[in-house]
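Re: 4'-deoxy-4'-aminopyridoxal-5'-phosphate structure - here you go.
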Amino acid sequence: MIYFDNASTTPLLPEVISEMVEGLTHQYGNSSSLHQKGRAAKAEIENTRKQIASFLKVDPMDLVFTSGASESNNLILTSVVKAKKIKKVFSSPLEHKSVLDPLLDLEKNNKDLELVWLKANKDGSLDLAPLSDHEPNSEVLVSLMHGNNEIGNFLDLEKVSEICQQKGFFFHSDLTQSLGHSPLDLSQTPLDFFSFSAHKLHGPKAVGVAYLKNAFQYPPQILGGSQESGLRAGTPSGVNIRAMGKALALSFENSQENSQKRSKLKNYAIEKLQENFEDIEFNGLSQNREKSLDTILNVSLKGEFPMLAFQLDLEGICVSQGSACSSGSVKRSKVIEILDDLHGRTEQTHTPLRISFSHLNTLEEIDRFIDSLLKIVKS
Ligand code: PMP
């Protein structure tokens, strides 16, 4: 089996599994309990919080452990709009649904809130002029992801962070696809809020982080307990949190080496695809080494192959033909639909495919993938 769907989720690393087994065996205390098992669980969680904060160069008090990036995005957007009396939000139609849907819901229920969608260019980059042209205002929130989960495009985070600082806007960035995969120094590029999930970094599912600068200022979204300094009710999963700490530590320690491996894989895949499919197109900036994640390559094959991902699956190859969040259906992703409109393409003229790598993949796997693709498309 060849797994090229790492943007959907990644396999657990053996070191992370060991951490989880250790945690599952010994760390069963409820971190709110006052006895020794509870105190041990609490200490473990707080140590992990400090460890993660030191990697990210932020205050540990501002990190909230959640069930993943979807919850983190919901918590941040809802709480910030409420607490800071936000009147305008700038975002983009290329965001993940866990940003789009809460924003649409907030707009529906708040007549004073205006949503402004930044326009996408043909290459999936965003027109930032409405942001830079806007006058300073402390009731404005900007929510833009760092690395796009479909096409891999990087946002110029430094530039947007600088604009937001100059104008007094709040800035939230969904870092789910980029954290641990691309160099990011949050002490140099300050963000007010960010979110990520452990499972994109070879950690467990259903655990992630919401970072809120000065977190104590914000209301919780899940009510019913004082966990996470009152920002999120519910008994935290010490095991998942501990394993997330391990996964993050490994990705930071090995970041250069892993990134070199992924870049090599991505470059080789680009080369082989171009060699074998002369009319192949690369969606967004995914072919651009500097301007896109080294984890994601999004291509379009000429012609209509609605069952392509299923056919590849039969060949033992896992890729995505739509967003993983709607996998199971062959409906193409919203991001590709937007690019299709901009390029005047239809479902009949091209078939998009997202191939996403991790450092665990090999060049031989790419060769096998190309052979299978040739067999399906050219038969
Ligand atoms: N944001 C982005 C950019 C993502 O890729 C994902 C996962 N598809 C999420 C948010 C949601 O993550 P989770 O499913 O772990 O909540």
